[in-house]
Specification:
- Two copies of one chain form a homodimer.
- Chain A is of the alpha+beta class and about 600 residues long.
- Chain A contains 20 helices and 23 strands.
- At the A-B interface, α1, α9, α10, β12 and α13 of A face α1, α9, α10, β12 and α13 of B.
Amino acid sequence: MDNTISRILAKVYENYRGFNEGAVADYIPELTSVDPNWYGICVFTTDGYGYAIGDAEQPFTIQSISKAFTFGMILDDHGPKAVDARIGVEPSGEAFNSISLDPETGRPLNPMINAGAIAATGMVQGSGFEDRFERIRSRFSAFAGSELSVDEAVYRSESATGFRNRAIAYLLRNVEKLDDPVDEAVEVYFKQCSILVTCRDLAVMAASLANGGVNPVTGERVLQPENVEKVLSVMSTCGMYDYSGEWIFRVGLPAKSGVGGGVLGVLPGQLGVAVFSPRLDVKGNSVRGVKTFVELSQSFNLHLFNYPVVSGHVIRRHYKLSDVGSNRQRLKSHHDTIREHGDAVRVIELQGDIFFTAMERLVRLQTELFDSTNTFVVDLTRVSLIDRATEDILLTVASDISDAGKRLIVIDPSEVIDRGRFDSESVNVAFSSDLDTALEFCEDQLIDKHVEAPMVSGLVPFHDFELFQSLDSNELSRIEGLLEMESFDRDCKIVEQGEDPDYMYLLAKGSVGIHLSPSNGAPRGQRVAAFCPGVCFGDLAVVDGSNRSADVWANEPSTCYLFSLASLARLAEEEPVIHSKILRNILLINIDRLRRCNQEIGSLKS
Amino acid sequence: MDNTISRILAKVYENYRGFNEGAVADYIPELTSVDPNWYGICVFTTDGYGYAIGDAEQPFTIQSISKAFTFGMILDDHGPKAVDARIGVEPSGEAFNSISLDPETGRPLNPMINAGAIAATGMVQGSGFEDRFERIRSRFSAFAGSELSVDEAVYRSESATGFRNRAIAYLLRNVEKLDDPVDEAVEVYFKQCSILVTCRDLAVMAASLANGGVNPVTGERVLQPENVEKVLSVMSTCGMYDYSGEWIFRVGLPAKSGVGGGVLGVLPGQLGVAVFSPRLDVKGNSVRGVKTFVELSQSFNLHLFNYPVVSGHVIRRHYKLSDVGSNRQRLKSHHDTIREHGDAVRVIELQGDIFFTAMERLVRLQTELFDSTNTFVVDLTRVSLIDRATEDILLTVASDISDAGKRLIVIDPSEVIDRGRFDSESVNVAFSSDLDTALEFCEDQLIDKHVEAPMVSGLVPFHDFELFQSLDSNELSRIEGLLEMESFDRDCKIVEQGEDPDYMYLLAKGSVGIHLSPSNGAPRGQRVAAFCPGVCFGDLAVVDGSNRSADVWANEPSTCYLFSLASLARLAEEEPVIHSKILRNILLINIDRLRRCNQEIGSLKS
């Protein structure tokens, strides 16, 4: 694909394409057989979208980049304590092949120098050489999202000439940082370094680290989440040999390079980047790799410490129930009650990823609104994750609200929080799967509390409907003769979308919902409105003659007065005064609806 | 204040309150006079909100924490190249008082060891000791948001005993990394280390770094934005002496400690944290400082590399003009035109801070919608910042849209982008200060294009109004006698909020806007609707008798037919059929409005 981002990458690529400083690694002859001009760049986002340019599909040996992933594996296998007993995490200030064992503990200073990497490979579980190596190869493959193989010639050559690494291994054995058999560990290490990857593989591996340990292309978990920060930490302080300080200063990404010419960098939460170019500088890093990263970091402003200032956008909006209500249509007087008393119900819609600073904003808002609010409705519909630490804070917020005798309703359709932790008797939290239902519930509570005879138990008499207000008794008698009455079972479809209108319905008892026609196999589509007894529905289509715009379902056994289109037409002919009064009433009802809609649009758009 | 966050801080504080490992620094007697039990924690957010507990107001000497801020100062004064010529940025792997000069270049390895810090202080501009020190004191004060003073006794003692530091200074002079007079630089360095700060001061200083170099309490810029990442980079690799690797591994924040017992840490974009506790470990770091940071980092999940995965929330919502329009009320036929052709106008509302990954999502969406869209409306109202690198990408996006002969409208009321860069002839970008105006403009364009006689030039005849549709010629004559006609100057207030309703207005020519009463001195409040010729307004209040709910202003010279409440009442008496027809028409007009409102609420709530 060719979008703006790929064109910028292409420009960076062209900038360095002809650049030929540095020399291919030559400590074994097999490494010199590469084309020194190979050059590839690849970027993967944490939602699995990739950009690639140049020799992004050319395989080469992973070399030291493997160290970061093996370190991750042993953290997963043994836990950080056991790993800490054998390998430190301090930069050595020395070259990659330095021996650098801590004089006091005997531990290699970090897992990115050869000594630490061999100690790490020695901790990879498995029975025997083949089994241990296969675990590594298979985990690396999961990281890359493709089956990786080995450059056997490079492996044989590394093995045949790796005397210094064998010496390091025996020194490690001497201080008990490596178990027997020593030879096996070194062999696995040589073979691990000879695994073939492409620039694309490395970018996906990097993106898996950026994505909290889940490969964003395959969706597979490849590293435990708690170990991701540990691997990245060591990459940030020790990943680029003794150029690591400069690298963080100039590029600002945790990264790892290998003498095969690969470099990968990770912008946590966002991106994995890989560059492949075999010519190396004296410190063993790919020359164009470093240059490309410096330019990408500047072009895209990727430096980790240049993270933009977090603003208050975690709170999508907040409002009172008196300003934005549910989609249930009620008696005007009930709407008035909600408007009068709805200030104490506060809806807070959150969005994005909720981590500490985001939660701190919520805590502050909750503190500010605490006295004036008796019900908090917190909508997590647009929240993609809440980390455990932040969930702890939310739990405390919930307790505070409970302890003060207030109510908390949480809307969490995608279950981003662990409900079990909130289901204790001491915490008064209700969960709801959609905001509209929660708002309706709050409205019902308000009406129950503030309206004397809140809900009608029998049938609402027809003359109590707003539709017939200001009609005198003679006029009402005339109307009575025109009304039919019909009862509907629960889950009966009263009106069907697309039908020609025949009746206005006056809901005398029960409850109905207005639903869009379902698009999939579900029995009912999205609910766009609901009605209480005393309210009429289907009036708009009758007045303007348009087709029914939605289905109407009985939510419970319901009874309606039916007022037909034909009767209305007859009234227009025979009783223009009555007709006129009814039209005016319909108009008044809809003016009221329109005003509420306008207010709601105002609140929603603000 | 006592909210959930401060209670969690209090818990951490209580955990370590009785902890008394470590020893107060004693290399000069003045440092031993502190109370070893002092313990304070302070957190400041990047919007300037603070939490403090314990001895947060107790002054102590800043010591090595000063090194980070002096390094920032010289980057501001001389630029990174000149600084790079004298001081490296690689961790030394050795103790803070090591000499660590690079054997090749003679540069101190980094500015956090004494050698590098003295070289840095030597670069602070000014004429003479007093002047140079005062510049440091005053910049540190700006960082802290309070006037800092010096512990003169500590300074005299440091100066009297600082032989090793003098030796380092002369070695620096020897390799020309320090200018004459050598003594002056060392004296300034001693005095800089003796500046008194509180835990609160340090937290604000840290928050200033987190906030991109702007003190979040005072709003003052204290460090150039491009140098913030550089200071934080060096803190991350070298800030905690030879515990820096472990620190990043366990805490994951760029940090700096001093032997006075202070430690500060920075979560870029989010927080500054400081802890004060004078007992030190063998590496010179505050024991409780380290423990507190480890616990805070875990409790609040602050580790830099545990940054949550960025999700697509940069795009607040996107929709077609056919689904959500401006608040201008038009002829029904015009609304139909907009609904029919508005699919090709795509509104994209962005939110939050726009950095690379966020922009990449926009680029992807724009690519996906490109073929089906001819006008992109990008709303930056809720965007707080776009960094320069990302602005470059937006500029490319704008060119792409222009090159394809499409249109881009950017809503940028708070000028987060540099408009000058977009004002070139080759880029077809229009700017608008509010979304509603932009939507209205797009609607006008659609009507111009798709409606044969788009805008009326003379007066709309009264019988063309929907209000009078289906009236026969006799009925229309009757109506004509009831209408008055009035013209209004531009900026005339036609209707005033709160008035009793007297007339319905039929806009025959011109344009009017419905505005809420202004709350401040502005002549007009927020515009909630606007009307085109052929549309009536003020009808709702006339029908239901409520007070005028808003002001109506003439946007240009305008002419209206006026239809009075009294005439309507007379019609009800004398001509019920006409009255009934008119009511039905008002009802039809408002049913149409209501349907549009409901559709819009649906789009907005989704």
